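Subject: for your reference before the review

Hello V.,

The reviewers asked for a structural picture of the protein, and I figured it would be easier to keep everything in one thread rather than splitting it across files. Below is the amino acid sequence we used in the manuscript, unchanged from the supplementary table.
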Amino acid sequence: MALLLALSPRPAAAQKPAPWTLDAVLKQLDAEAKTFRALTTQLERTKVTVVVNDRSVESGTLAVRKDDKMRIDLTNPDPKTILRDGDRLYVFHPRIKRVEEYDLGKHRALLEQFLLLGFGTSGGDLKKGYLVTLQGEVALDRKRTILLELTPKSEKVRNNIAKIHIWIDPGTWLPVQQKFFETGSQDYFEIKYTNLVRNPKLPDSQFRARWPKDVTRIKPSV
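And here is what came back from the structure prediction:
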């Protein structure tokens, strides 16, 4: 009996998946970017001013399409709609009936790095704009995520943002959290994303600039 037990095959030990490498993560982001068309999600943005220990929080929803269309509807604490259509960006404040109109123009490439960072962004594009380092696999809200640190290559960007952390869900390859560290201070802002839906059908009407007739329009300089 002892001999039979010794010769019997033993169940193989459960193997942990091999840890991600930076090259593997970037290649996967390249592949995912090819199939990305649109996204909807709930978001919560927290601005932290360390010196005075202040935390201001905004929350709402985000809808975005790959063809340069984006809509953010913030509901708390103050309602606000941020709408992007190509090179045009609108910020509508319903309580005071005012809409700010911006022409992104030459600032488009710079702003895109922050507006939609990680949503359909390829690994190649990340490497063009940032020094990318893999911080490892970390738990976030009890879920496994891949943490990337991005250091902007552009001096213009580094004048405002020293580095960015992005937590990516390896199940969807979309960011579930971003953290932007401001240059020259300990301040930062953090954005959390929940209830993400990849590639929903979003009609053109969702991104049209429709405001009340009596709205006040201003065009601040970017």
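For the response letter, the relevant points are probably these. The chain has a mean pLDDT of 88. The chain has one domain: 20-208+214-218.

Happy to draft the paragraph if you're swamped.

O.
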